[in-house]
Amino acid sequence: MRSLQYLLLVLLIAIGLVASAPPRHRRQIDLTLSAEHDDKDDETELALEAIAGLWSSPDSRTKIDGSAKVVHRSHGGIQSGSDQDWRIGLRVVFD
Fold first, then answer.
1. Per-residue pLDDT at 87
2. Per-position b or e across 23-53, b if 16+ CB within 10 A of its CB
3. Residue 4 maps to a domain
4. What is the enclosing helix (H) or strand (E) of 36?
5. Which residues form the signal peptide (predicted)?
6. Residues 5, 17, 54, 58: is their CA dihedral positive or negative?
7. Is 6 among the domain residues?
8. Which of 7, 37, 50, 85 has its CA 20 to 30 A from that of 67?
């Protein structure tokens, strides 16, 4: 019985903390996956890009967007192998 009381107390404290937490902000993340194959050069390219709105001013006139992109290329034929290209970007927009 005592453990049940402690559990209820912890539950009430947790609910109070969650209720008093700052409001959550919605974020939209756009994901793009693309694949391309070139028969002539026997090359395949896979790309994954994520773009997200990171911050916006209260009047929405200033925005900060972030992006990350990884590209994987696979070469066949005479020069077989693969390489990767990683990019991280930040964009600030003033209206």
1. 85
2. eeeeeeeeeeeeeeeeeeeebeeeeebebeb
3. no
4. strand 29-38
5. 1-20
6. positive
7. no
8. 37
What is the residue whose two structure tokens read 């028969």? 39
Using the Cα atoms of residue 16, residue 17, residue 19 and residue 20 in order, give the sign of their dihedral.
positive
Could you list the pLDDT tens digit for every one of the 95 residues in the chain? 465 666 677 777 776 665 665 676 677 788 899 999 888 877 888 889 898 888 888 898 999 899 898 888 888 766 677 888 888 888 898 98
Total domains in the fold of the chain: 1
CA atoms within 13 A on the CB side of 33: 0
Q: Is residue 5 part of a domain?
A: no
- Residue range(s) defining the domain that contains residue 72: 27-94
Dig out the tokens for 29 from the structure: 């993340």
pLDDT at 2: 62
